[in-house]
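dumping this here so i dont lose it
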């Protein structure tokens, strides 16, 4: 009926969907949205229509996007145990430590447990990496990114 190719319509719908979802994710203001669509070269009437469409639907789009986000497991509790092998039949004087960790997680109101085992040196390296990541979160750059994600 439109005398337009299927690919053109599909690309138009995908572009409109991308514009509305990304704008809703970032919760950009009316002025920023207008500036974003102004460079596309549409008529003023179409720009006003797109702005109205964005303003009317951005909260609903954000709620749908939050429902579509993957539900990651959350921390519940942690149990740990230190095992040390002091000797074996072939080696009478050896020290072989191992740390066993049982991590209890909540996912969709179900509790699961993951059992992990490592040596102390790997555990210390993991702790250092996590502390470095926490320190990185305190930088202004990361704070800005987290603020824009909300």
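and the seq i came up w/
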């Amino acid at each position: 009926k439109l005398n337009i190719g299927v690919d053109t319509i599909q690309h138009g719908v995908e572009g409109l969907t991308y514009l509305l979802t990304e704008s809703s994710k970032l919760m950009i203001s009316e002025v920023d949205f207008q500036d974003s669509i102004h460079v596309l070269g549409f008529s003023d009437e179409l720009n006003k229509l797109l702005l109205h469409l964005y303003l009317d639907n951005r909260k609903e789009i954000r709620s749908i996007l939050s429902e579509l986000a993957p539900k990651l497991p959350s921390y519940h509790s942690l149990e740990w145990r230190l095992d040390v092998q002091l000797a074996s039949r072939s080696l009478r004087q050896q020290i072989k430590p191992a740390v066993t960790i049982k991590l209890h997680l909540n996912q969709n109101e179900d509790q699961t447990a993951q059992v992990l085992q490592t040596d102390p040196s790997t555990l210390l390296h993991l702790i250092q990496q996590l502390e470095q990541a926490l320190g990185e979160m305190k930088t202004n750059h990361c704070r800005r990114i987290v603020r824009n994600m909300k």
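The radius of gyration is 27 Å.
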